[in-house]
From TrEMBL:
<dbReference type="GO" id="GO:0000287">
    <property type="term" value="F:magnesium ion binding"/>
</dbReference>
<keyword id="KW-0460">Magnesium</keyword>
<dbReference type="InterPro" id="IPR036649">
    <property type="entry name" value="Pyrophosphatase_sf"/>
</dbReference>
<feature type="compositionally biased region" description="Low complexity">
    <location>
        <begin position="16"/>
        <end position="31"/>
    </location>
</feature>
<dbReference type="Pfam" id="PF00719">
    <property type="entry name" value="Pyrophosphatase"/>
</dbReference>
<protein>
    <recommendedName>
        <fullName>Soluble inorganic pyrophosphatase</fullName>
        <ecNumber>3.6.1.1</ecNumber>
    </recommendedName>
</protein>
<comment type="similarity">
    <text>Belongs to the PPase family.</text>
</comment>
<keyword id="KW-0479">Metal-binding</keyword>
<keyword id="KW-0378">Hydrolase</keyword>
<dbReference type="GO" id="GO:0005737">
    <property type="term" value="C:cytoplasm"/>
</dbReference>
<dbReference type="InterPro" id="IPR008162">
    <property type="entry name" value="Pyrophosphatase"/>
</dbReference>
<feature type="region of interest" description="Disordered">
    <location>
        <begin position="1"/>
        <end position="35"/>
    </location>
</feature>
<dbReference type="GO" id="GO:0004427">
    <property type="term" value="F:inorganic diphosphate phosphatase activity"/>
</dbReference>
<dbReference type="GO" id="GO:0006796">
    <property type="term" value="P:phosphate-containing compound metabolic process"/>
</dbReference>
Amino acid sequence: MAPSQEVTAATKEPSTNGNGTNGTNGTAAAAPKTKTPALNERILSSITRRSVAAHPWHDLEIGPDAPTIFNCVIEIPKGSKIKYELDKKTGLIKVDRVLYSSVVYPHNYGFIPRTLCDDDDPIDVLVIMQEPVVPGCFLRAKAIGLMPMIDQGEADDKIIAVCADDPEYRHFNDIKELPPHRLAEIRRFFEDCESLMPLIRSG
């Protein structure tokens, strides 16, 4: 196929005069310009086509078996000295700070999607299970108790739960069933974090 015919086929313009130019004014036919969509438009379009959760707080379902069994998003893995937290604007997990002293998280820590506490954050949950998990993943949990907490004068209660799919802990139904040392460990962790808050705010 001659070059002039390729231009004609691509642009659907009137046929050329045989020398690669338009028969009217002698100029080559130009292909129409197409607008490149903005990056954000392409990302949103991709998310829509794939039907994936765009934001772990707002878009992830709490689960069909709630409130008995519910989904929760893990921000901080068991044994971590780094406090990760959800960035509300982007939905990504960010580094908030490194904990003071030798305190580490005794179990996986995160939040319950589509919930709201008095501090305008999702409800916090500490999930007892055998192994640490990757920040940003979600798992099925079962609540076994509540640990009332106050943060800067506002209620900041912590749900204590077990992983519903962990064979070692899934049979627990009440916080009183935990070994006394395990419960004392959890309580002491939150007390230590609270006592360190003045250093964090000043520092």
